[in-house]
Amino acid sequence: xxxxIVKSLSxxxxxxxxxxxxxLLNNSDNLNINNVGTSxxxxxxxxxxxxSNLLPLRVSTWEHIRxxxxxxxxxxxxxxxxxxxxxxxxxxxxxxxxYTAQTMSATISTNVNILLRNGLMVIGSVVxxxxxxxRLTLLTVIVIPPxxxxxxxxxxxxxxxxxxxxxxxxxxxxxxxxxxxxMRNIRAFASEQKEKxxxxxxxxxxxxxxxxxxxxxxxxxxxxxxxxxCILVAILSYGGHLVLSGRMTADQMLAFMLYQxxxxxxxxxxxxxxxxxxxxxxxxxxxxxxxxxxxxxxxDKGELMPEKVLGKIEFCQVGxxxxxxxxxxxxxxxxxxxxxxxxxxxxxxxxxxKSSIIALLxxxxxxxxxxxxxxxxxxxxxxxxxxxxxxxLIFNLKSSCFRFR
Length: 405
Description:
Structural class: alpha+beta
Shape: elongated
Transmembrane segments: 68-92, 112-129, 136-154, 226-244
Mean pLDDT: 74
Helix content: 55-70%
Number of domains: 3
Pfam family, one: ABC_tran
CATH topology of the largest domain: ABC transporter transmembrane region fold
Strand order of the largest sheet: 4-3-5-6
CATH superfamily of the largest domain: ABC transporter type 1, transmembrane domain
Organism: Meloidogyne javanica (Root-knot nematode worm)
Subcellular location: Membrane
Domain ABC transmembrane type-1: 101-279
Low-confidence stretches: 1-57, 94-100, 397-405
């Protein structure tokens, strides 16, 4: 901006006296020329005696602004091109799909850019401030350690709130999916109001957590603003003392204040980057937990691949309970054998363990105790792909698109 003003002011010296943007044209309020000599440099100002040099003319701030705006007419074509690029960019973003992880990638790229830029500006500002006055610089940076500690506490708290927000949202979505998938059963048992209240309770929990996040953000910003104002008052007080005592000039004091204001703005941007990153971390923590989660059943453990399989199946004193209900034993000391070529039907009431037997045979779960044998070998010793080629599960549902062979 300073370079732009210098260029604009230097342009005035090249303007012709007849230009409508010349600062000395039609300035009849400040200048009344009665007579200008043609053979000499003498002038008469308001009836006063002639002098050899013109007095310096003082132009008001508003007239400077008017002259600068007039200068913009010389570069109107570049301003128009920039405006058109802005309109095209804003219009193009409307048609960019949001399902391509653009939000997360934009957040990371923008925050990294802001972090690097403001970090370098903080270092540069501190270096220049130390060159002007190391006393005022120490007074400025003395508040950084407590602010950093407070920022760390706030980031941890905000991170936990973001994780809770994601959990409550997922619970609300899960309830909605269950209700939509079982709409006939809900209507049959007249449970519409109950499911509505259950979904509303999850939404209310999400709202309460978002309120806590808003209050935490407001408190964090209030503490930052209060600390910046305290630093400003301290610098003005001590800096004024240094100026009055002659250890610092007024120009240096003004420049130091400008650097201090820039430093405070940079720290504010760094804190906002920390907040955004903590929100992203809290939102994505559960996803990364599932990605890094290792199954208890090692698929690459088995290596047995016999050329011929007869098909003899044995359950030897098998006991099983689901991980979500470890205290409820679905199968207790179950033992039976199926010879090759036999067709066996599992019959029993709901919850008796029919589906659990099939799940264990497919090696979806590990039994708590006992063994499941195929041709006298434990099924976990078979190679994963080979085992599921010889042991297949077929679902005979209404829609053929759900049939697996």
